[in-house]
């Protein structure tokens, strides 16, 4: 206890070199975190930067002798409020990036200018204020036996009315949040049987909806399955993703692959067409080796043709590789 | 180091938060910037409490935290219901109070 008391006196009464070092290092990080909160494009990154800033502020509270507030800052702010923020970010959609379109022309620069002016005003105001007397929290923290006891003594005597009002405020906030997020059901929820009957009656989509993804290539839920002609089918992606516009389209890629495949096979067939009499084993892959050797045996007059044939072979190998993948 | 530096840091953080409120369009990020401003105020209050040698500043900071918690709950509920009705969390889309 005496150790804590001396620590309290020390921490609150003097600004040691250690505290100065801590202030300059952590203060820089806090400002960087705050800037990142404002400048990061995605809300999740902003939330994480803000959480870092809040933890640093908790350390500053502790350094200032406000032990209770320091712990409450970590528990309430970074533990509860920031997690609530992250929940809402996840609910709203992590990828919902900020629109960079300016509604008012030049508003960003004006806002930054106003902020700069405001900051300069605030800082010169603090610089001009007479903040010479510096008492330290030592006496106040030890008057009732500690920081928490001192706060409790004040909270339940001088500020007891405000404390009670706070309770009413919290209850109101909880009820308000429930009312705001509650959705009134205007009709009874339909049962599974009724839904099935409705589906049969409408006759639009009797079997279950098709699955997303393209077989053996992609199976992510946000990639629409491809119809036989290569166009994506919107039906295969879940309604939520469809409404958010988060469908990745790989149909053009698939179509290009298909086109390349066709070109290669045409190439091969075309060359084989004018390269001499086609052997019956020419079409299938198993007869390829025999075919090659036969062609070599055919004589030296077909050197050019052999070259072309080799190219075709390599193309065919690529085909096989892709099929494996 | 003078403890006035804490006040300068608080002023800086408050300014950054205010600029963020003005320039960002995402309602959630705007809300986070408001939290940043509240935190900066709390830091200033704690520093004042240390300067004056009494705990009243810490009590006020404590009340600020309670009010901020209540505010976050209601504000995020409003953002969620706005997102439900408009499918966007941008403050530009919520320019009309009605749907």
Can you give a write-up of this model?
Helices cover 66% and strands 0% of the residues of chain A. Chain A has helices at residues 2-13, 17-39, 43-63, 67-92, 107-128, 138-143, 147-155, 160-181, 192-202, 239-244, 251-274, 288-297, 303-324. Chain A is mainly alpha-helical and 325 residues long. In chain A, 19% of the residues are buried. Residues 9-13 and 275-325 of chain A have low confidence and may be disordered. Among the domains of chain A are: 1-96 and 136-143, Up-down Bundle (Four Helix Bundle (Hemerythrin (Met), subunit A)); 148-184; 251-324, no CATH class. By secondary structure, chain B is mainly alpha-helical. Chain B has a single domain (4-86), classed as Helix Hairpins (Orthogonal Bundle), CATH 1.10.287.3510. Chain B has helices spanning 4-23, 27-52, 56-86. In chain B, helix 1 (4-23) packs antiparallel against helix 2 and helix 2 (27-52) runs antiparallel to helix 3. The longest helix of chain B has 31 residues, at 56-86. Chain B is elongated and about 50 Å long. The N and C termini of chain B lie far apart (54 Å). At the A-B interface, helix 2, helix 3, helix 4, helix 5 and helix 6 of A face helix 1, helix 2 and helix 3 of B.
Q: In a nutshell, what does this entry contain?
A:
The complex is a heterodimer of chains A (325) and B (99). Chain A is an all-alpha fold and 325 residues long. Chain A has helices spanning 2-13, 17-39, 43-63, 67-92, 107-128, 138-143, 147-155, 160-181, 192-202, 239-244, 251-274, 288-297, 303-324.
Distance between the first and last residues' Cα of chain B: 54 Å
Q: Label the structural class of chain B.
A: mainly alpha
Segments of chain B where pLDDT lies below 50 for 5+ residues? none
CATH C-level label of the domain at 1-96 and 136-143 in chain A: Mainly Alpha
Mean pLDDT of chain A: 76
Task: List the chains of the largest interface with their residue counts.
Answer: A-B, 86 and 72 residues
In this structure, how is the largest beta sheet of chain A organized?
A: none
**Number of contiguous helices of chain A:** 13
What name does CATH use for the topology of the domain at 1-96 and 136-143 in chain A?
Four Helix Bundle (Hemerythrin (Met), subunit A)
Helix content of chain B: over 70%
Rounded to the nearest angstrom, the distance between the terminal CA atoms of chain A is 69 Å
- Count of distinct structural domains of chain B: 1
Q: What is the CATH architecture assignment of chain B?
A: Orthogonal Bundle
The number of helical segments of chain B is 3
Count every beta strand of chain B, where a strand is a DSSP E run of 2 or more residues: 0
Q: What is the CATH homology-level superfamily of the domain at 1-96 and 136-143 in chain A?
A: NADH-ubiquinone/plastoquinone oxidoreductase chain 6, subunit NuoJ
Uncertain segments of chain A of ≥5 residues (pLDDT<50)?
Answer: 9-13, 275-325
Give the overall average pLDDT of chain B.
Answer: 88
Percent in strands of chain A:
under 5%
Q: Please state roughly what percent of the residues of chain B sit in beta strands, choosing from under 5%, 5-15%, 15-25%, 25-35%, 35-45% or over 45%.
A: under 5%
Question: What share of residues of chain A is helical?
Answer: 55-70%
Protein name (chain B): NADH-quinone oxidoreductase subunit K
Subunit structure (chain B): NDH-1 is composed of 14 different subunits. Subunits NuoA, H, J, K, L, M, N constitute the membrane sector of the complex.
Keywords (chain B): Cell membrane, Membrane, NAD, Oxidoreductase, Quinone, Translocase, Transmembrane, Transmembrane helix, Transport
Transmembrane segments (chain B): 6-23, 28-48, 60-83
């Amino acid at each position: 206890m005496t150790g804590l008391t001396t620590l309290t006196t020390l921490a609150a009464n003097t600004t040691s070199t250690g505290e100065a070092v801590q202030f300059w290092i952590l203060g820089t990080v806090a400002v960087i975190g705050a800037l990142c909160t404002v400048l990061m494009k995605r809300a999740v990154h902003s939330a994480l930067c803000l959480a870092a800033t809040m933890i640093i502020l908790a350390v500053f509270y502790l350094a200032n002798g406000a032990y209770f507030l320091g712990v409450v800052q970590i528990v309430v702010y970074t533990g509860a409020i920031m997690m609530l923020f992250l929940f809402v970010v996840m609910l709203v959609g992590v990828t919902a990036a900020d629109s960079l379109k300016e509604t008012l022309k030049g508003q960003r620069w004006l806002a930054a200018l106003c902020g700069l002016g405001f900051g300069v005003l605030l800082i010169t105001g603090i610089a001009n204020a007479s903040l010479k007397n510096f008492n330290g929290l030592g006496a106040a923290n030890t008057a009732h036996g500690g920081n928490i006891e001192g706060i409790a003594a004040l909270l339940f005597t001088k500020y007891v009315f405000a404390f009670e009002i706070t309770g009413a405020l919290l209850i109101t906030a909880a009820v308000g949040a429930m009312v705001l997020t509650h959705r009134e059901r205007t009709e009874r929820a339909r049962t599974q049987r009724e839904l099935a009957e409705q589906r049969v009656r409408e006759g639009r989509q009797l079997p279950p909806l098709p699955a997303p993804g393209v077989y053996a290539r992609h199976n992510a839920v946000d990639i629409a399955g491809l119809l036989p002609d290569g166009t994506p089918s919107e039906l295969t992606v879940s309604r939520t993703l469809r409404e958010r516009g988060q469908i990745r389209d790989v149909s053009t890629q698939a179509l290009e692959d298909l086109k390349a495949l066709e070109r290669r096979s045409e190439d091969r067939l075309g060359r084989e067409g004018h390269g001499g009499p086609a052997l019956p084993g020419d079409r299938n892959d198993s007869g390829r080796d025999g075919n090659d050797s036969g062609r070599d045996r055919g004589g030296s007059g077909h050197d050019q043709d052999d070259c072309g044939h080799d190219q075709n072979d390599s193309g065919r190998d690529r085909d096989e590789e892709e099929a494996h993948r | 180091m003078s403890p006035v530096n804490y006040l300068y840091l608080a002023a800086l953080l408050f300014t950054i938060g205010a600029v963020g409120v003005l320039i960002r369009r995402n309602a959630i990020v705007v809300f986070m910037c408001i939290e940043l401003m509240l935190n900066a105020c709390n830091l200033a209050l704690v520093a004042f409490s240390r300067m004056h040698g009494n705990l009243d500043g810490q009590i006020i900071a404590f009340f600020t935290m309670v009010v901020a918690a209540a505010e976050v709950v209601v504000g995020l509920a409003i953002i969620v219901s706005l997102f439900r009705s408009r499918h966007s969390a941008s403050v530009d889309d919520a320019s009309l109070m009605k749907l």
